[in-house]
Amino acid sequence: MNRIIISVLTKMCIEEPGHWYRYVSKLQRVINSTYQRAINTTPFQLLTGVKMRMKEDTNVLELLEEEGRVEFMNQRDESRREAKAQILRIQEENRRTYNKKRKEGAKYKQGDLELGKDRFEVEKIDRGKEGPRKTTTGVDFMKRWP
């Protein structure tokens, strides 16, 4: 909230930066009379139990709303950057774990059907079992038939 307050005060006293203190009470009134989603009411109403009666300064209210939107978008963008970095870390961890378990591909002789990238077309020997008769699989799931 302090970032928002400082930013709004800066915009309010742009013509006289040394006199920012003149705008603090006006800004405080607007903040205290503005609905806060976190508490489902205004701070003034939460404290006193009644709505604040005041002539709203729409300029200050607009500045506050704009700063709130900017802060929200910055937080959202930062959350997205953190999520992307976390996804990349997990993917790398998964890649390392997967590669540890992966077996080296067997070398087959000419005439064996190979699909590339250690993928092979296989056919069931016991055709009485459910599932497709022919399929493809990775070499790490295959064993030579004795």
If you had to describe this structure to a student in words, what would you say it looks like?
The protein has 146 residues and is mainly α. It has two domains: 2-101, no CATH class; 104-146, no CATH class. The chain has four helices and three strands; from the N terminus they run ααααβββ. It has helices spanning 2-12, 24-32, 43-48, 58-101, and strands at 114-116, 119-123, 134-138. It has a three-stranded antiparallel β-sheet with strand order 1-2-3, with no helix packed on it. A hairpin with a 2-residue loop joins strand 1 (114-116) and strand 2 (119-123). Helix 1 (2-12) crosses helix 4. The model has no long low-confidence stretch (mean pLDDT 81).
Give a summary of the structure in a few sentences:
The protein is mainly alpha-helical and 146 residues long. It is built from four helices and three strands, in the order H-H-H-H-E-E-E.
Layout of SSEs?
Elements: H1 2-12, H2 24-32, H3 43-48, H4 58-101, E1 114-116, E2 119-123, E3 134-138
Antiparallel strand pairs: 1-2, 2-3
Helix pairs in contact: 1-4
InterPro entries: RNaseH_sf
Region (Disordered): 124-146
Biased composition (Basic and acidic residues): 124-133
Keywords:
3-stranded antiparallel beta sheet, 3 strands, rod-shaped, RNaseH_sf
